[in-house]
Amino acid sequence: MKRATLTALAFSFVLGSFLLLARRPAVSGVVVARPEQILPTMLVSEVVACFGKVRANFEVVNSSNSPREFVFEGAKCGCSSVLVDGRVVARGDRVRLEGGQSAKVEMQTNVPHQAGQRDYYATLSTSDRGVVRTIDLKSSMKVLDDVRVTPEVFSVAFPPSASQAVERTLVVEHAFRAGGVSEGPVPVLAGSPPYLKVVRVARQGLPAESESGLWRQSWRVTVSVLPTDDLTSTASPNRVIVSFPGEGGAAPSEAFLPVLVSRVGGVEAPKSIHFGEAPLGQSRVKSIMLRSGDEKPFEIVGATSASSAFSASIKSEGARVAHRVELAFLASRVGTEESELHIITNCPDAREIKIDLRGIGTRPGSDSEGR
Question: Whole-model pTM?
């Protein structure tokens, strides 16, 4: 965003470049200029640049020939402050206007740094022929995301045996300010996890001017997702940064896309177990958990190893969502011993689970520190 553009926007807010409504008597003897104001649409980046401070200006006129007193009843949101003729007023403060006199009312609003439609209100009251009447002042504005990605959360769930990559499409919408553009900047994806790759980026039509000086451009981004071996039924949270370069050295505009990739079904188990070192004739024991990926109970039918140095003891019986298995390594010779443990289950998606086992046998009286 160019600095000149931001300066022009801020200047338009201060001057009250709003949608004007005709002057109309809200209360007998009182005229309010522009009691409802629609502020120009802003981008989130513009709200951040001006620290969220936006101003709307009103004028209250005592159109009668007699003095009139106005009471500030407060703002109907906790994020606005009101000034009358440059002085901050609090709830209950009174302002006296002589006949024909007017007061400048400024409503300052701290706009949240997020997209959405915002309505802000402030209320004054005055006595109208013995009856207390209220005067409502309202400002409205719309804030747009600079970058919006659909879907808002990228999620892929692979079946247990899947090994082939799948492609998914993201729609990226970019809102920006530029005059006389023919093409918008190209989106860039950064911080992607290793299993996600960008395949192609395609522009959908040319930028369209949605409001004066505000342009929109849509893109279709195709990504490839590869089911890696470390995926489980619990998706590890990742995020991808979708960004567009800023103009004139300005910071890029960006959005964060949560990425959830998992495997459904099957049985979750460690891929390998290392027992470390054990003196000849001694054992090392480790416990592992086998858990159903879809929370459905399963049974362990048996467990075997090709090497007598390794053994498995099932510590749970019957059908369960999770089973504890105790593994043991008995050092029978000096050096590294390796084998593969085969665990048989009745789970349709994981009939056989393979776990690589490794242990190191050492001479009696010595260990990893040489004692």
Answer: 0.62
